[in-house]
Amino acid sequence: MTAAFLLPFPQFDPVAIHLGPFGIRWYALAYIVSLVAGWLIARRLCTLKPVVATQVQVDDFASWAILGVVLGGRLGYVLFYRPDFYLTHPLEILQVWQGGMSFHGGALGVIVALALFSRAQKLNFLAFSDRITAIVPLGLGIGRCANFVNGELWGRPAPAGLPWAMVFPRGGPIPRHPSELYEALTEGVLLLCVTLFAVSRPWVRERPGFGAGLFLFGYAVARSFCEFFREPDSFLGFLPFGTTMGQVLCIPMAFVGIWLMIWAVRHPRLAASHG
User: Fold this and answer.
1) How confident is the model at residue 98 (pLDDT cuts 50, 70, 90)?
2) What is the pLDDT of residues 188-218, one digit of tens each?
3) What's the burial of 94, exposed, middle or buried (CB within 10 Å: 0-12/13-18/19+)?
4) Cβ(39)–Cβ(31) below 8 Å
5) Which residues pair with 157 in a beta bridge?
6) What is the dihedral of CA 56, 189, 15, 90, to 10 degrees?
7) How far apart are CA 25 and CA 23, in angstroms?
8) pLDDT digits (tens, 9 = 90+) for 35-92
9) Which of 14, 39, 255, 262 is 20 to 30 A distant from 25 in Cα terms?
10) Are 254 and 216 in contact (CB under 8 A)?
11) How many angstroms separate the CA atoms of 214 and 133, rounded?
């Protein structure tokens, strides 16, 4: 590939906002924007008929969601990706500023948070989950953009002539797919459009579990597709049959999503009068 076909990688300042001797990095800013925007949208979605939670309850759940994302994401990375390393370096599990978060772990953390919060507040777990999972792609899309800004999680070597191929600062001299942007578009923008459209339909809102199942299945498909363009982690490489850890973890997610949608269709509807 000649240089004429390469896009220069933007040299972003790793710190998004400078506050004197302190600064907010892009990844932290992505978390902040995602949580605030998601919270505001969730307050509206949960009060659509049939109402599944009050706005005050959504406000209370925000802190539960943060804990679920951070704790689940970190533990998921430790257990799914580098268990041998952290077994011999346990104190580094706490060093979250060094990076290392897993979406699948974060998803499990949020599921646990949803279950515990729903039980404590006597909410319909599946119905509440439908509204909350509808906004998760917003955070995914913003997070992948932050990955791109940081020049991390780059793609596999690109074919000759690919006009948007890039040489990443830490990815060697090989032109690569900007797979972070592929994920931002599919797991983020596209999936967000699908989930928000679905939850806007009374037919979906009246069938607890369908929206959450749609999200799980949609994410599994989008992530599995993007994994064909994303360079696997160097310490893991490819798994049997050329698969990646991301694809393997998406298999149970896809099956659970399909099962939830089927279950939701076959069970009684949530009456609008409940709200």
Assistant:
1) low
2) 999 999 999 999 999 999 999 999 999 999 9
3) exposed
4) no
5) 176
6) 70
7) 6
8) 899 999 999 999 999 999 999 999 999 999 989 988 888 887 787 777 777 787 777 7
9) 39
10) yes
11) 9
DSSP symbol at 232: P
Structure tokens at 116: 């515990």
**In contact, 231 and 154? CB cutoff 8 Å:** yes
Contact 169, 249 (CB under 8 A): no
The rounded distance, in Å, linking the Cα atoms of 68 and 203 is 29
Token digits of residue 196:
């928000």
CB 63 within 8 A of CB 110: no
Q: How far apart are CA 165 and CA 176, in angstroms?
A: 5
For the question of whether the overall pTM of this predicted structure is more than 0.70, the answer is yes
> Letter for the amino acid at 151?
G
Contact (CB, 8 A) for 80 and 245:
yes
- Residue holding tokens 């599990």? 93
CB contact at 8 A, 80 and 103: no
3-state helix/strand/coil string of 186-199: HHHHHHHHHHHHHH
Q: Are strands 22-25 and 15-19 parallel, antiparallel or unpaired?
A: antiparallel
Rounded average pLDDT over 155-179: 91
Tally of residues, the chain: 275
Please give the single-letter amino acid code of residue 67: L
Provide the 3-class DSSP secondary structure of residue 122. Answer: coil
